[in-house]
Specification:
alpha+beta; 4-stranded mixed β-sheet; 13 helices; 21 strands
Length: 431
């Protein structure tokens, strides 16, 4: 639709990897601002990733391939939500419909999996291991858990994926005795989802999900009237304290009829209707919903991806336009690469310039991608002038092209050592 501009689509990452990268960059930024070692924070961060069963195994492979994006595998838990068949009525009895489409049983099911045993997996020494007890049993009793969805476009941005002011407010509300805190946003396009309501009788706050009022004319009319006035919408950014106790009782299931079959479906918002849950909501003025749910959201999604690409380039130390397009053989001002004993030769800062080297790096990246090579690019350097700068330039350009990079950065390394690593390690394809 002509939405892409020159320079777009440089980073071919899916929505999940983009959020993980944003999360890491945000943690690193916070650590630096507090004069704390970023790697220490990254290594301690715990994460629970709950996915649809159809993509679960591919997601774990992606984490392994990308070295867990720098996080500690021991602190990452994967939970697969199964996709299940529906039911039908046969001879007056409810029976499993083997030919029905398989579907997930709702995001409430995801939440309940946190408190159930034998739901999670971890990767230990690149092997997938089943966790026998519940994830929540592995955390302190008072652990604070925040959650959001993968299609929440705002979570692609560093200052949004961890908004310090919002997080401080959440902690403040938890300190006041609430045990569930939800964020609301404006909903100008009347997107379907949960609405925050307050009981006039008890004063209790809770979410009214779409499934709660389907089939009830009065509730439907009330919610539609609220939508017409652009009532705040549940952004699905929830924070819990004491979730283990809350999930000691299961959430209710709704009966859903779809494509001629009956399914069970549980929604997360129903947890707030429980008597043991004290929920609070907040909304930051001027914030709207930015979910990527359907084709009409593509234009909004492109805007957020473009902003995140800028953040990725900045984090990698890459300028806005790294290199102009060049032919396959010429570099610099028309100078051909002069091969010597082990690579290009030239006079330093005369014809062997930084721009010249960067063009060569881009040429190597082009070859790497065109050849379908899957391994990492190994980079080392010798003691000569500005070689550390060349290492940074090479890593930035390869990363910008979506190529995984490994760097021997501690000290200069002889060329034969690099060649040995590349020829003896199946995970390394280039030097």
């Amino acid at each position: 639709k002509g939405l892409l501009q020159e320079g777009d689509a440089q980073f071919h990452y899916g929505m999940g990897p983009r959020q993980i990268m944003a999360f890491r960059m945000a943690l690193e930024k916070i650590a630096r601002n507090q004069n704390v070692d970023p790697q220490k924070i990254i290594s301690q961060q715990r994460m629970i990733i709950n996915t649809n069963g159809a993509i679960h195994d591919d997601m774990i492979k992606d984490f392994i391939t990308n070295d867990f994006y720098g996080f500690n595998p021991k602190n990452i838990f994967f939970i697969k939500q199964p996709i299940l068949k529906g039911y039908t009525i046969k001879d007056g009895k409810v029976v499993l419909a083997e030919n029905s489409p398989a579907m997930p049983y709702g995001h409430g099911y995801n939440l309940m999996q946190l408190g159930a045993s034998q739901q999670a997996q971890q990767v230990i020494n690149k092997e997938v291991v089943n966790v026998t007890e519940s994830v929540l049993n592995l955390f302190p009793q008072d652990v604070i858990i925040t959650s959001h969805r993968v299609n929440d476009l705002t979570k692609f941005l560093v200052d949004e994926v961890i908004d310090i002011e919002k997080f401080a407010l959440r902690l403040s509300l938890l300190d006041k005795g609430y045990n569930v805190v939800g964020e609301l946003v404006e909903n100008p396009n009347k997107q379907k989802g949960g609405n925050a309501v307050k009981s006039a009788t008890t004063g209790k706050n809770f979410l009214l999900e779409t499934l709660n009022f389907k089939g009830d004319p009065q509730l439907t009319a009330m919610v539609e009237a609220a939508a017409e006035k652009s009532a705040p919408y549940n952004a699905f950014r929830l924070t819990y304290e004491g979730l283990k106790n809350i999930l000691s009782k299961t959430l209710p299931y709704n009966l859903r009829f779809k494509e001629g079959y009956f399914y069970l479906e549980s929604v997360t918002g129903d947890i707030m209707q429980r008597p043991d849950v004290n929920a609070a909501f907040f909304k930051k003025e001027g914030t709207s919903i930015h979910d990527f749910k359907e084709e009409k959201n593509v234009e909004d999604a492109v805007k957020f991806l473009r902003e995140q690409d800028k953040e990725i380039r900045s984090a990698l130390g890459i300028v806005e336009k790294i290199l102009p397009k060049v032919g396959p053989h010429t570099v610099g001002k028309g100078r051909l690469v002069q091969f010597g004993t082990s690579g290009d030769r030239g006079q330093f800062d005369v014809d062997f310039t930084r721009e010249h080297k960067m063009r060569i790096f881009q040429g190597i990246a082009n070859y790497h991608l065109k050849s379908g090579i899957k391994g990492a690019m190994l980079i080392g350097y010798d003691p000569r002038q500005d070689n550390r700068q060349a290492v940074e330039d090479a890593a930035a350009i390869f990363a910008a092209n979506g190529i995984k990079v490994k760097i021997i950065i501690a000290e200069p390394t002889p060329v034969p050592v690099l060649a040995y690593f590349a020829s003896s390690n199946k995970d390394i394809e280039g030097v």
